[in-house]
Write a structure and sequence with these properties.
transferase, Prenyltransferase_related, 2 domains, single chain, Chlorophyll synthase, chlorophyll synthetase activity, mainly alpha
Length: 290
């Protein structure tokens, strides 16, 4: 049996993608107002669960079920290149799924069920017959919930040992919905190829201009909702900061909408950064008021 190279194993887990759920996990920690020092080892386990395990599993699952397409478009990837041989891509995904569930069970019942939902979405996103990734409405929603809402929820449940409060769940859901728009930004670069391969991203279904407007609305409305909730909960300064970050995004959106295909990567780097900063501002408000 061919030996699996450690570098290939790390590559198929796509570590760069771990940032989003780990950032959401950090927001969940902050939103509880609990002392980090008193939860040290538990938090390490939670970070490993959110990033390398659950997110890493989703990446391995995706690469396994995309191996035939990758053999044509990106033959140097670990699975089509043979650096992860045979069916080991599938076996690794299954092993990581079980490891994720075991660790989640150890961390607590609410963490476990959040992991179950996240892993179910990870497999459904890529695995036939579901293949949520083939439709931008479903696929982007699955990623938004998995990468933003569930890690935030998981961290809050881990810190409190209980079901998170309604304000925490509300902000986690809002920013998870907003991530649907963020995911659409990634789909402008391959409209022709996706159309030929039957991948019905929103730019394919709606056309670039309409998909760009939709992405902006889906990103902006939840942030406006978060600002209004923060104001209603008695955090006017935090609400003002979130609103200010949104206003700055609106200025950037104007340029993106002029030519979505050209400026999608630019707006993904600029507007998305402002959005995720707003996440932490909202989390800080809840933590301050806890």
């Amino acid at each position: 049996m061919q030996r699996i190279q450690p570098a290939a194993l790390l590559q198929v887990m796509h570590p760069i993608t771990w940032f989003a759920p780990m950032w959401a996990f950090a927001c969940g920690i902050v939103s509880t107002g609990e002392s980090v020092l008193s939860h040290g080892l538990v938090l390490v386990g939670g970070i490993v669960l959110a990033g390398p395990l659950v997110c890493g599993t989703s990446q391995v699952v995706n690469d396994w079920f995309d191996r035939h397409v990758d053999a044509i478009n990106e033959p140097d990837r670990p699975i089509p290149s043979g650096r992860i041989p045979g069916r080991w891509g599938l076996y690794i995904a299954l092993i990581m799924t079980v490891a994720s569930l075991v660790l989640a069970w150890v961390l607590g019942i609410w963490v476990f069920w959040a992991a179950v939902v996240g892993l179910a979405l990870a497999w459904a996103y890529s695995m036939p017959p579901f293949r949520l990734k083939l439709n931008g409405w479903w696929g982007n929603g699955a990623v938004g919930l998995s990468y933003e809402t569930l890690p935030w929820f998981t961290a809050a449940a881990l810190m409190t040992g209980d079901l998170p409060s309604l304000p925490i769940i509300a902000l986690a859901l809002l920013y998870g919905i907003g991530a649907h728009g963020i995911m659409t930004l990634n789909d402008f670069k391959a409209i022709e190829g996706d159309s030929q391969m039957g991948v019905r991203t929103l730019p394919v279904q709606l056309g670039a201009p309409r998909a760009a407007r939709l992405a902006c609305w889906v990103m902006a409305v939840p942030q406006a909702g978060a600002a209004l909730l923060l104001l209603a909960w008695g955090f006017p300064w935090h609400a003002l900061i979130v609103a200010g970050l949104l206003v700055a995004q609106l200025g950037l959106m104007a340029r993106f909408l002029r030519d979505p295909r050209q400026y999608a990567p630019w707006y993904n780097a600029t507007g998305t950064t402002l959005s995720v900063l707003g996440m932490m501002v909202g989390a800080s408000a809840l933590g301050y008021g806890a």
